[in-house]
Amino acid sequence: MMFREKVALTKRGVLAFRRYCPRYFWSVILRVLLETLIPYVPIYFSAKLLDALAAGETVRVLALYVLLTVGLVFLLKLGENWFRSSEEGYMNDVYMEENWVFTQKSLSMAYSSLEDQEIKLNHERVRMDNQTGYNLYYLTLCTERIWREMLQILLSGAILLSFFALGSIPLWCKLGLLLLVGAKSFLVAWKGKKTFALNDQFSKDTAESNLWSDKFYHYLSDYNAGKEIRLYATGDWLARKVADREAPYWKLYCKVQAQSVLYDLPLLLADGVIKLFLYGILLYGALSGEVSVGSITKYVSSMLLLVGAISGLGFSLSVAEGNAFFLKRYFEYLDIPNPMYKGSLTVEKRDDREYNVEFRNVSFRYPGSRDYALRHVNLTFRVGEKLAVVGLNGSGKTTFIKLLCRLYDPTEGEILLNGVNIQKYDYDEYMSIFSVVFQDFRLFAFSLGQNVAAGMAYDAARVEESLRQAGFGDRFASLPKGLDTCLYREFDEDGVEISGGEAQKIAIARALYKNAPFIVLDEPTAALDPVSEYEVYSKFNEIAGDKTAIYISHRLASCRFCDRILVFRAGEIVERGTHRELLANPRGEYHALWNAQAQYYTE
User: Fold this and answer.
1) Whole-prediction pTM value?
2) Which CATH code for domain 357-433+516-602?
3) DSSP structural state of residue 559
4) 230: left (phi over 0), alpha (psi -120 to 50) or beta
5) How much is the CA Rg of the chain, to the nearest whole Å?
6) Is CATH 1.20.1560.10 what the domain over 3-334 is classified as, yes or no?
7) How many other β-carbons are positioned within 10 Å of the β-carbon of residue 538?
8) For residues 85 and 31, is the Cβ–Cβ distance under 8 A?
9) pLDDT tens profile 354-393
């Protein structure tokens, strides 16, 4: 990576950091300013005090220097502590804002990007980088240190100007001191590069181990895992597995730490040489009578602060340079474009729900795949039609729904809504006409009412009616807090645990509550018992109402309640018709699937 790109990435990171929480950014700037001034107050006034003592000044003058030293340090410390205490709260705002930025990114990305394995891996890497300290943490740390070290260099340099103006000290001594300081700065930069490279390689070598540990500890932190651990007595086995997996990590960690210590030895030697050389120069100046006792302490302290600041600046710059590699990955994720054309046409809000959808020679293959998931699909939905989609796993049923809801765009062909290509409609408005329950739906550890409404505010009467229609009425009546009952126990110890079938009913109620013209249920009864399944299907028409309903199901009994059935195989529609029509064809795919299931109920 070119140096200019590193600078640009770091600058962008600082601007992002400031944008996340301006109050925190400026608090750090002001706090570091006060913090940096603190050691220079006693340096300056202590020199004045020693010189005043040597000159036999009055007690009043001596007391004034003491009061100025103590008072100014007290005020500076007070201001520093005030800013530092404020930053404790501001820091939380920074990370909350950063998390929200990444959340917004996930929400704004195309669904195809969310399913892309490379993008998912990159997001996981960025998340692990953040946990290790790279990106934002190192950026804020480097910003703070660089600002402090630059201030120290300016203040120390201002004090040491009079030292380099002393005529009694030979020029070669001054140049030699500068040369030693430069050598120390070079060694610090060298150490920074070596240490960062060492830690970077360590991070790469342990990346898989860190991901594994993160997933493992996430599993253990889930209270549901406690049942399996106890029932199958897996505690000791899990402990050994963790120990065996992490042993190489800690062995490598100790090796890295030992190597880091070796990099410190040249720096310790350089520090000793600089101090000896500086004391020798100042003693020579004192013996010549041109350097006062107070000036000796002032120059020694300032020179040590200058050396430390220059060394620290070199180290901080090397860390910032190394962090630029991680910032690149950080911003590459945030810069992932959304290739989905959003459209601008308004989806007509029709009271008569006259929405006609047509698949016109639609084919699709997933990004990175050579195989087509759908091939030459041609289909028109009739308004208010109840449509069943069946077929073996991998036949293209769910892909068909993803294209209909425009989570993906067709590779070939087009999908029309009322005669207009759906890509021309406003993306969010188009999605608003669908209520969908996917197989991998999610419920949240919030209240039942919020889960059904998918939001904080909701119409309680509508929520209850949706739950009743979905077959959750009896269970709802037994809940002591009604719609305020929290699902699960992550955030509420009084939360209720619900079964898979109950969760599915709540998900169906969520789709009903949205009251969109199209309702799509992907395996809506997979987790229901036969009685609950029959209850859902017997109320099929009541649930769907005047909506256009699409059911994906492996249980062909559901097809009997539908107006039309589509049979998918290898991405193509191989049969279509009513239950009676398809069952009448003994050589058809549907007939074979029906009889394969029927034998388990008739034998």
Assistant:
1) 0.70
2) 3.40.50.300
3) G
4) alpha
5) 35
6) yes
7) 12
8) no
9) 678 899 999 999 887 889 999 999 999 877 888 889 888 8
